[in-house]
User: What shape does this take?
Amino acid sequence: MIENFLDPEFFSSIARLTTPILLAALGGLICHRAGVFNIALEGFILLGAFMAVLGSYLGDSAFWGALSAILGGIFLAIVFSEFHLRRRGDPIVVSIAINLLGLGLSTYLLRSIFDVSGVFSHPNIHKLATINWPLLDSFWLLDLIFNDQSILFYIAILSTIAFHYFLKYHKIGLWIRVAGENQEALRSSGSNPVQVKFFALLICGIFCGLAGAQLSISNVGLFVENMSAGRGWIAVVVVLLCAGRPIPLFFLIILFGVVDSLSLRIQGLGLPQQITEMMPYIVSILVLVFVSFRRFRFSSKTHL
Amino acid sequence: MHVSLRGITVDFGNLRAVDKVSLEANAGEIHAVVGENGAGKSTIMSVLYGSNTDFSGKILCNGKKVSWSSPKDAIKAGIGMVHQHFMLVGNLTVLENIALGNESINQFGFIKFNTIRANILGIVSRYKIHIDLDELVDNLSVAQRQIVEIIKLLYRESMVLILDEPTAVLTPNERAIFFQSLKNFKAENKTIILITHKIDEVMDIADHVTVLRNGKLISSSQLEITNKEKISQEIVGEEIPRLNIKRGAYESKKILDVKDLIIKTNFTTKQAINFSINTGEIIGIAGVSGNGQTELVETLIGIRRASNGEINLLDKNVINANTQTRRMMGISFVPQDRQRDGLALGASVWENACITKVNDKKFSWGSFLRKKNMKAFSRSLIQEFNIKVNGPDALVRTMSGGNMQKLVVARELSSQCPLIIVENPTWGIDIGSIAFIHQKIMDIKSAGVAILLVSNELDEITSLSDGAFVMYEGTLSKRISKGKNFRELIGRHMLSGFNTYYSPTGSSPNE
Ligand SMILES: Nc1ncnc2c1ncn2[C@@H]1O[C@H](COP(=O)(O)OP(=O)(O)O)[C@@H](O)[C@H]1O
Ligand SMILES: [Mg+2]
Assistant: This one.
């Protein structure tokens, strides 16, 4: 039975399941820290996934796929900025609109450009390169987890570390933190909070675009309508759970991936699918309860 | 640097906040700008600092006309400002806050925190300032926050320092240190613009004084050729009324009785606190801020749990009751930080005025609010307390600090509770309003309300209270009764605690 659980596929699937969520969550994290309430990650990812397939198909290479996914994300980031930052629309309303726009636009373009509905796959869709580190071949577990993953997997891990240092020690990272905490202080120090927030949204667009590319042109080379399937929402939740800190975010997503992977296995043991699919969410809620319980304990002020 | 403002006019909608005001400040001079709350002091300074660009008139620096599109331009030109409400980010360290806006960076844009730290440590030692650069600003006292704001300006090498009511939040001791720094800056030929309400400070330290009233320039002259009485009259526009004390008819009984209360503070000594307040009595709690007064108040109103003891309100122990219950049982409370604890800034005046009264039959039917009555009530408060605002629908955010405070005081004093706790009720507000609020406190006292007055202002304690305690490092002194030496005893306890007390006249310290 233990072999059932710990087969090689179990470990390699963790990276596959978590990479898109991690990329999107990094984008969401920057927005969160900059004080932009962006819960449109789902829409961003979906359009990114479609654009990746489109770019890869038309440009005949995965590079164009990734680039066009980024452009898709940036496009939605600009739409978000126009309505939220410039026209001061409510971020929740704007997010909902963009989630619907991502779904509608990708579905519409799929039908009008490729004349298919549901699924589009084509030999001309090039997949992202995978990287093999010969050094790791002899370490069973490391080999399974870190070898032969798409290039975006490595970018996601490096970005997590980069984001940590960027927020802590970079000038713009500092501005982003201030924009999220006290806009007036930022304005008074001579920077424009709106520009800083716009920058954060662009980063978010880029990373969500890449998350989309990871979904559609990394392991598979196809686009399915609504293929983001809630990953953007998971990313939103994870960002809020870890209060926008990159390193805890990383580990939380790994935990999520492990549980998700496990739940697939448990399903194999005959538990109803409806129950196993709840597992990652139940674990999230438990973590949330645990985190807020500790916060509660540490605060000396009890009832307000 | 010589700065001059010529004919500045600022409008907010149909309200003219500043009306053709001109002002000249010289290098090596402390230029005081005084005026009541809402006189337009902060507004005209925001013009000089570039945070308000919607004005008419001219700004000149060293005789050359300049125009700012944002504070960035003003900062570059050497102008720095400490705002009335600090522009600090609580979740950042002192170091990060100071670096913000003047980050020295490497070629990749990363901040050279080590260089900045060394630079700040140089400034800090030059002016003999004590501050921990790695502490979060959230954990600092108000006085320490102010120091951070000032280091910010020094770090940017500002030549013009605009200080918007910097002393409003300082204790007498801290103020003396602060004034010494100002003199040092002046000796370094910096231009200092000091906004304040306190005439004594002007007389102490300023070289030049400009008076504003209702957005208009009333006078601007060297200190030598004017005097205290003249300035006071120019600020208020009339004479300040004297405190009017009368005694009403009420039955004398114990309202609040605190027994063996142990509060949670950061101090190591945990001494039981005992005191009581009767009807029509004002008990003062004096002390340098940060000695546990806030913790005591929070414990009394139920925001903070006590470790032990009794809080008897009208003979009922409320130690386990929550804040709402205590309020309903008859405690009313004026918090020190009106913006954080007293008001919802984004809500309207009427909503704020009635927030503590929603259970009152007059203001609600079951769970529905009676908006009309609420607005009418707010209108009467605005009138009675002379609050300067555009009517009950205006947002609280648009009011000046003093008027915000008046609104909180108005709401709490009108609650008709048997006990009211007021914490620094005149923090950062002008002399006219101070006299007014003091009179209101005396009025409810004479109606029989028991009042706990927590204040860092020695004068406030001595002129209002019937008896006082001093709080020092989390413990409370014995009761000091009103009489001769009242002021002197309190002052000495505030600075040096109670144990090492030495009385020159040989009398017991607590008589
Ligand atoms: N942003 C704003 N919107 C509307 N009115 C304002 C705003 N800022 C200040 N005011 C009004 O302008 C007047 C002057 O305010 P202010 O300069 O803050 O006074 P002071 O600093 O002298 O106490 C006040 O009546 C205030 O209510
Ligand atoms: Mg002001």
Chain B touches chain A through 33 residues (CB under 8 Å). The pocket of adenosine-5'-diphosphate (ligand 1) is lined by residues B 12, 15, 17, 35, 37-43, 388, 398-400 (CB under 6 Å).
